[in-house]
Design a protein that fits this description.
With 253 residues, this protein is an alpha/beta fold. The protein is built from seven helices and six strands, in the order βααβαβαβααββα. Bound molecules: ligand V07. The site of ligand V07 has 19 residues, from helix 2, strand 2, helix 3, strand 3 and helix 4. Pfam families: Prenyltransf.
Length: 253
């Protein structure tokens, strides 16, 4: 409770030090639901509402890329009923939220193996991408059927193929060549998150972005994803702003 008697926080941010790329592991939807005796899918539904709120809040703060871990390559191991519910969320998201995104000039991008998703889900994802393609504000980048190690396997395969085809010499493989073969390559100089947030108290990366977080600030928050809102995002950005970034002592971006 603040001195003004209102039950809200007001985090003061340095608007000149807003992280350009924020990545979030949206954990705790199932636990949030179970805690209130609801089925796990109710947590995923509530989680989607958080996606909408947090995306607009990030865009309003001037974040340039917001990457959200929506579905991992390991999530297929969950019960079939939960997986099929999750697979419908991009459709629901598309039907209810794309006009709002366009109004906020937000562009949807997706990284991951979209080709392995149900046809209707692929269609909704591609529609969201197509309908927002002219937006030049924040990029809302969904990691969908994505795995960090799988992404690196793909990059190594592509580099190996380039060598076999005589297009690349092994000695010319450098960090830039690897980055160029990752799923974040379309983000260009914004490919690496400045800030990675994980909700729900777990302090792990769980095969989300691996290469790209080499110098990211990691912020773990106890709130479940359905409870995370614009104010929570500001609080995490405030933590980020109080860290001293050293980039391995090499550069000072
Ligand atoms: C999903 C809601 C957020 C909490 C975590 C899991 C459940 C948005 C999307 C989405 C993905 C691609 C796209 C448009 C929307 C989504 C899945 C799960 C599988 F183009 N939320 N959300 N996709 N959850």
């Amino acid at each position: 409770m603040g001195v003004d008697g209102e039950d809200h926080q007001t985090t003061e941010l340095d608007m000149d030090k807003i992280p350009e790329h924020v990545a979030i592991i949206m954990d705790g939807n199932g636990r949030w639901a179970t805690r209130q005796h609801l089925p796990r899918v109710a947590g995923h539904k509530a989680g989607m509402e958080s996606v909408k709120k947090v995306a607009i809040a990030a865009s309003d703060l001037g974040v340039k890329v917001l990457t959200l871990y929506a579905f991992s390559t390991e999530n297929w191991k969950r019960p079939t009923s939960e997986v099929s519910y999750l697979m419908k969320l991009p459709i629901r998201f598309f039907n209810t939220f794309v006009p709002d995104l366009v109004a906020h000039n937000v562009r949807v991008m997706v990284m991951g193996h979209i080709d392995e998703l149900p046809a209707g889900t692929q269609k909704a994802v591609n529609q969201a991408i197509a309908d927002t393609k002219d937006c030049d504000g924040m990029v809302l980048n969904f990691a969908l059927n994505y795995g960090g190690r799988d992404e690196l396997v793909g990059a190594v395969k592509a580099l190996g193929q380039d060598i076999q085809d005589g297009k690349l010499a092994p000695e010319s493989i450098d960090e830039q060549a690897i980055s160029a073969h990752l799923m974040t390559a379309p983000l260009g100089k914004l490919a690496d998150p400045d800030l990675m947030i994980r909700t729900s108290g777990e302090e792990r990366i769980s095969n989300f972005l691996l290469w790209q977080i080499a110098y990211s600030e990691l912020v773990f928050v106890d709130q479940s994803w359905p409870d995370f809102d614009g104010e929570s995002l500001k609080a995490a950005i405030s933590v980020f702003q109080h860290r001293h970034r050293r980039f391995g002592g090499l550069v000072n971006k």
